[in-house]
Amino acid sequence: MSAFHFDGLVWHWPIAIYLFLAGLSAGAVFFGILLKHFKLGKKAYQSRFIQAAALIAPVTVCAGLGILVIDLTKPFDFWKILVFYNSTSVMSMGVLVLMVYQLMLFAWIGAIFCTPVVQWCEGRERRWSLLARGLIKLQRWEDVITGILLILSLSLGAYTGFLLSALIGFPLLNNPVLPVLFLVSGLTSGAAATLLVGVLLKGNPNGTEVRFIHGIEIPMILIEMAILFTFFAGLILSGGQSQVAAFNALGEGFWGWIFWGGVVGLGLTLPLAFNLWMKVSADRKFAYVAVTASFSLVGVLLLRNFILYTGQMTGT
């Protein structure tokens, strides 16, 4: 049996990429909102890290949807799921959340960057003045938009786990802890991507934003480790095929090495160690922040693939 091709395999790696990108977008928005409201205030648009979050969130969620459409058996029929919603379908409800999320996301970006856009529009053609007036009106509703977007981002992060649980008959995927695991790991990936792109945009690697995100990222990594332990402990203690699924995933072989070396080692332990080291060091440098963020991103991507493939290897 191959690690990527075996009997019972329904969803392949493009779904893992989609789940990764959706969670990353939700995480970038989550940390962008926190930075804006707790640290940066009205001039948040000047921050390279807010700019990074505003760039990452729409690009990744649109790219993820594109991958999902291409992977469908009948991609040209995708429009139907945008029009006809089924309240009993996890995927249908997820697409609805995605649509509203994107609407609120672009509204939030417009409200955040209202000031520089309005300044740019001054003295230009009438159509640009209409845009400026529209953004000013939008900015008045920023608090409402932010609140709705925050809820939607958390819902989107959890949805990536609920989507996999829709594959009935696989004990590793039909686990109530999975949506929580994917939510927390998605937020972690969003934090890492915001830091990485922020420093690439010449943001200060030792600035307020980096210290704030790292302060939240450390407990989140510890929480993710605890959730992973709970996830597999529950499977093992359940016995039967659930126990078989856990041992098959964690044992020797390709996916066992991916989990222990990639997810736990590269994706969790090393970023935690680097974050703790940077917390007690005098300052943070570009290389430290970039490498730590890259490790976290790779770890979350490996986790998505690990859960997707090993979850389909053992049925009930």
Total count of domains:
1
Q: What order do the helices and strands follow?
A: HHHHHHHHHHHH
User: Which CATH C-level class is it?
Assistant: Mainly Alpha
Radius of gyration: 21 Å
CATH topology: Formate dehydrogenase/DMSO reductase fold
Low-confidence stretches: none
Mean pLDDT: 88
Q: Specify the CATH architecture.
A: Up-down Bundle
Strand content: under 5%
Quaternary structure classification: single chain
State the share of residues found in helices, binned by percent: over 70%
Fold and architecture overview:
It contains twelve helices and no strands. The chain is mainly α and 316 residues long. The chain has a single domain, classed as Formate dehydrogenase/DMSO reductase fold (Up-down Bundle), CATH 1.20.1630. α8 packs antiparallel against α9, α9 packs across α10 and α9 runs antiparallel to α11. The longest helix has 31 residues.
Descriptors for this entry?
316 residues, 0% strand, Formate dehydrogenase/DMSO reductase fold, mainly alpha
Give the SSE map.
Layout (H helix, E strand, L loop, with lengths): L12 H28 L7 H24 L7 H5 L6 H23 L1 H8 L4 H14 L2 H24 L12 H23 L7 H31 L1 H11 L3 H27 L5 H26 L5
